[in-house]
Structures are given as structure tokens and as C-alpha cells.
Amino acid sequence: xxDDGLSKVLANLxxxxxxxxxxxxxxxxxxxxxxxxxxxxxxxxxxxxxxxYVPTGATDNTTIATVTEASKEIIRITLSAGMEYDVFLELxxxxxxxxxxxxxxxxxxxxxxMIARRMQLGASIAISKSVPTSGKQDGKL
Length: 141
Prior knowledge:
Helix content is 50%, strand content 9%.
């Protein structure tokens, strides 16, 4: 009898662990989509109303957020931009034109709330059609 009870507990524990991993993947996808959107719309340059503004959209087009790891222990998202000069924008002039790290700092409460909402047991784990749920890259989730 004791072994049967232990087997049920372990089986249920496996289900909970699997569900937590699924929740982490969904939360990570939602956060990545939000980060990418915020990074593309909340930067300090490219004001279409400023004199001499010539939009290329290159930095916005290459700004992406990718889920690089999602498990019950950790959620890792990479937010990056792909133009050669983006390093300058982010790091030079004491961060005058920085936008990637500032967007994370500005929205850390939103990020934590999204993760907390999805990680609660009993909460819905329905997947939004507009949110990516897997960012497999280099063999990692």
C-alpha cells in the first residue's frame, strides 16, 4: 500500500514538473515578444518629427528577442540587434542612445508579472496565437 501511494505521488510530481516546464516556455515566449516590441518602439532615436530624420528601419528590423532557455529553474531570453553600429548605440556616449538594457530595466515589473502569472499552478496555460512558444537556437530551448 505504501508503495502504491508513493507511486501516485511521484507520478503526480512528474506531471507538475512537466506542467511547470510548459508554463516556463509559454511565459518566456510572451516575455520575448513583449521585449522585442518594446525595444522597437521605445528607443530614443528616429523621431519622425525631427528635422532631417531619414528612417532606415535597419536597427528595428534586426532587433529580436529569442528564448534561449526555458525550464522550471531558469528562463533566459536574449534581446539583440544585428546592425554593426548597434553596439555603438547601446554602449557609447555613456548610454545616450542605449535602448536594449533600458527597456529591460523599464519593464522589469511587467516581465516579472508575466512570468508570475503563467507560473501559478491552476492558472490558464492556453497559448496565445500571437506569441512564440519556442525559440530553439543552437540546440537549446
